[in-house]
Every structure is written in C-alpha cells, then in structure tokens.
Amino acid sequence: MFPGNGAVDTPVRSGGPVPRRPAKHVELRFYAELKDFLAANHRSGKVGRTFDVAGSVKDMIEACGVPHTEVDLILANGESVDFSYRVGDGDRISVYPVFEAFDISSIARVRPQPLRQTRFVLDGHLGKVARYLRLVGFDSSYANTWSDHELVSISTGQHRILLTRDVGLLKHGAVTHGYFVRATEPLRQLTEIVDRFHLADCVAPFTRCMQCNGLLQPVEKAEIAHRLPPRTRDHFDEYRMCASCQRIYWPGSHHRRLTEIVDQARQA
Description:
single chain, alpha/beta, 8 helices, elongated
C-alpha cells in the first residue's frame, strides 16, 4: 500500500551497529624546548592525533604534555590563533615557545603580557632554589606545606610567576604565568631561572632574608649587640636585620660561598 502523500517509504535499518564516521586527524609540530614535554617517541616534535569531537587547541596541546604557560605562539595552517581556536580535521598546528631573539609583537601571542614586577612562588620541590633567589634579591614565596590549590591561588592572587617541577600544575586553567624548571640541581636551577626571565641585570644580593623573604635593612651594632655571639660581636661591625622575622645577617665565614652564587647568577 502506498502513502497518501506520494512520498516513498525509506527502509529502516534493523539490528547491527550504526557505522562510525571516520575519525578526524590533526598534525602538531612543537619547536625548541617544548619538545622536552613530549613522550619519548615524539621527541622529533611531530605529533599526530585523532579526534571525534572538535576541542580547543589549548586542550589538544596539553593532551600532548605541553603546559599552556610554556607556549607563546600558535599557528593553525599558517595563521596565528589563540588558545580558544577549535581544531578542525586536517589542521596543521605549529606550537612555539617564548621568543627571545625575535620580536613577534605584530602577530597574536597567546601568553599574557609580562607582569610589572618579577615575583615568584615556588612549589615544594624547589625549596633550596627559593633561598638562592632570595639571596640574589628576588621576591620568592615558598612553603613546603602549600597544596596545589594554594600555589595556584597565590600565583593568581598575588601576580607571581609559578615555578614548579610539576607539569600537571602548570596545566591548571587559572595559571597565567608559570614556568617548568628543567634543571634538578639548585645552582643550575638558579641560573636557568635568571636566564629565562632575563634577570641578570636585576640581581640585588643580600637584600632579602633567605629564611622568610623579608627585606633586609642596615642596623646599628649597638642595637643588636645583646643578640650576637661574642666572637661575632668582636670581629664584625656591619649588620643587616630582616624587617619581618628580625633575623640578623653579617658577612661571616659563609660569605665567600654566597658571593660565588651571586656571581653565577649575574653571569647567567
């Protein structure tokens, strides 16, 4: 029997799975130090990924292991895009780290503008380099009891660059300024950080408390003489005191070693 409106009935498929559409494909190319975050089989920088539902290029980059805080420029098929770009089938994505030798201000960058003041907050793995950063004069907050949530909150709330050895922490969506410290030895970490943020000319040694990060101020010997060990009181006349924790500093036997660390930072 035929339908009254002249249409032709369409057979209905019964049973069996509905065939899937072919997966979409995208090719990503990571450059320079961004390769550090890729799996061993992708250290050439080339990564191919398939997907069914289009997502943001930020999500796809981080799925490859690269935190968004390490990325400065993204090109999709040769055109500059931001993190919100929706990846399409057949896209060729090029991902670049921070440029040091080239001015790319004329094209879109995905990183926010640098902070007015270079201040840091460090995770629990970086306690020693936090002390070294304070030694050379940089405002560096650190406590080995802070959770990931607290670190992110301090970074965003106090406008501090988050330094960490935890890649996953840098993928937190709220983090805008962060850096993955590659070196594992504290002195190398110090020179890496100073070099990465171009801070060699900003080194101001012996101006911050290595213990609490407070500012050091000159203090008269007579004011603190009762707090000094007898031999120290007899041999030294110049002292500084932390305005926050009242810790007293003087150029003792360890001063030469600390000066060597300062010199390394200046030469980074």
